[in-house]
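Sequence and structure are kept together here, with a separate record for every protein. An example record follows, reproduced without changes.
>
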Amino acid sequence: MINSRSIAASLLLITSANASWAAGPNNGTGPFTNLPGTNAIRDAYAAIQREAGVAEALRSGDQSLTLRQKIVGAGIETTKFQSFYKGVQVLGSTVSHHKGLRGVVEVSNDLARFDLDTRPTVSQQSAVALAKGEGGDKVLKGAPALKILPSDNADSAQLIYWVTLEGTPTEAGSNLLIDAHTGATIANSRIT
């Protein structure tokens, strides 16, 4: 089970990774052509689709996966895929493919399952105003990012804006998670 408080706290300490390659349609091909190491990525994507829970989630068409990271070392090759729901990144929701030297494969399925309206009722401008009210009148660092935060409760999640406010010479910056439906502040973490 994914714990939303742990995710919120952990994610406020790190920067979200930007995905560089889309995993493509459920046939595992997508744009994995003419790129170094694409056969291994394609094989990893095909293997995770055979995993029962992953195949079921992808079959609905609401969830998709994007290549997040590939790590090779210590005799294990790990390919991590980030989950998106209706085009919105789901924080902490990933699938990893691990392949050992002897070809032994393991799939780690950490996909969050939920149904959620991905149309925010709070505007980006309102989210910024709410964040500035909570985090101080600081300069906005980029546009608020719409993301999904899975809940502690099974089968539920919150649509959020991730708002980053820059620090000043005398004050730390802030990362704030604002509920995109209610405007409530879910988390506020100071950054230096």
Q: What stands out?
A: The CA atoms of residues 22 and 66 lie 5 Å apart. The mean pLDDT is 79. DSSP finds four helices and nine strands in the chain.
